[in-house]
Model the fold of this input.
Amino acid sequence: DVVVTQSPLSLPVTLGQPASISCRSSQSLVYSDGNTYLNWFQQRPGQSPRRLIYKVSNRDAGVPDRFSGSGSGTDFTLKISRVEAEDVGFYYCLQGSHWPYTFGQGTKLEIK
Amino acid sequence: EVQLVQSGAEVKKPGESLKISCKASGYTFTSWWIGWVRQMPGKGLEWMGIIYPGDSETRYSPSFQGQVTISADKSTDTAYLQWSSLKASDTAIYYCARWWPPLRYFDYWGQGTLVTVSS
Done:
């Protein structure tokens, strides 16, 4: 199975400051159709997960533009340009390029 | 508006059977895959499997193959996750979510069902 490793696992950030979460896979996530199926989800405390970014860098509808995704191959990053209080929670990457599909272990973002 | 509404929390004993549900509305149920995701207490998300209600094609992650059964009822637009013999280690929140194959992405999520298995 493709192992997806997120870092850091805990990320204390000052309000208004940037945040960056890394997601690394044990194999390239470039699929045979040329697409890279690496997605990001947010889970606020006590809530269901919520979609954020699909195929590395495509922000979903309604997601603030302070969120951005980048990367290629095996290395991917979710960035928040200026952290707000509502961004507190867990962030997960999900690889959909290799069966079985696998989530990263999650990164907890908290306000310092 | 797409909605996935899951059944309520369950408390069961080891060895008992259980079937939880996920009722879909706001879209054509038979045209979209629905999946299940496990979240054990204090842990991350795990991709369990998906079903295409149109023809009941089902795909399980190997970790969950044989441990659970995913099904769907087209007449009621409802997906199900069931166990024949629960274990304490099945204690978790289970989320259903709509799976979008072109993006390999869960776009809409249910509110989650807490399953507690304890003697």
Notes: The radius of gyration of chain B is 14 Å. The mean pLDDT of chain B is 97.
